[in-house]
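Listing S7. Sequence submitted for prediction.
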Amino acid sequence: MDDTEHAPGFAASLMPRIPELAAATVARLTEEIPAYRLLPDSVLGGDLVANTEAVLELFLTTLAEGRPPAEHELAAPVAWGAERARDGVPLEAVLRVYPLGARQAWELAMAGPEPAADPYALVTGLLAFLGEVMPKVAEAYLREQADLDWEQREHGRNLAGVLLAGRPARRAAERYGRVLAERYEVVVLRLPDPTGGATTRILRAVRSELDRNPEVLATFKGDGGVLLVPEGQDGGTRRLLARLDAAAALRCTAAAATAEDHAAIPQAQLEASEVLSLAEDLGRAPGIYRLADLAVEYQLVQPGPAREALARTLAPLDGQPHLIATLREFIAAGYRRAEAAEALTVHRNTLTYRLGRIRLLTGHDATDPTEAGRLAAALTAYDAVRRSRQR
């Protein structure tokens, strides 16, 4: 005997009870899944009930006819699932409606005055139907979610571009249904340089993390980006960057400056960009820097006679890059000989000899606490002058 022989009878007995089944399913959804309780009444009492009734009717029809649902018959439930992505309902919650509806149908079929004569046929039909509809709904939902993420990302990028250009952005924000903060912290971000060509993966991971923070406006180009972080955001810029580091699985380097109002955003970006370049030029470790962190170095690199005079301190070392490298590593090591020698991969005696040559040629002793500071300042100015000549 065919397993589905009794199926038309099951379907015929349950068809008149579709409204009852749908109402019971929706009641369970709103009771068990908080996401549905957040939907407006028009969706709960309208679309949700209507879609549940339509799916149950489609299931019973195909069960009675012993066939899978056709593509055109699945169009409505698939479209409904995609719409829930725009409502912010999680995919898990969207898919739960189907097993819950199946469970209601099963319980009703088995608890009636005349229980299903062949439960196996009903179970087989239920599983086959769920196997057809749920993957298609999930696929449509994920496609819609990807479109939404892209739209939100584009909206954020466009708004960031308008604000960074110093133009009014409130009308554009209204068109996108977004609210601008009064004050932003402008963060210029450099993505880490990975090994093995994983830049695309890192950028995707960072953008995915930013998608969870839609109030942060972001624009990316190449290996860097600019973030506009609302001032006073819970956790602050430092915590946001820590999450980006975790997403990238590598530490980023960034600089931040606060814009007191929208008109000040371009200047804040310029300040943050200069601080970031300075931190990178100084070989600072990945992290977030502000002007106050590098105020002395920032002042030293500004064009002028003081910078030129400081840079000339190291002029006698021109043409001897090994001595410049020695001074750089000695300063970076906190003037500790063992660490500097290890970084340079030379013997400590070689390091001592080179430091002596630096003292002889410049007249300044890097091992003397008083003169070490001057040499560090001179190196910062020296690097800045060389960069300006290369431009």
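Caption to Listing S7: primary sequence and predicted structure tokens for the chain studied. The CA atoms of residues 191 and 252 lie 5 Å apart. Confidence is low (pLDDT under 50) at residues 1-6.
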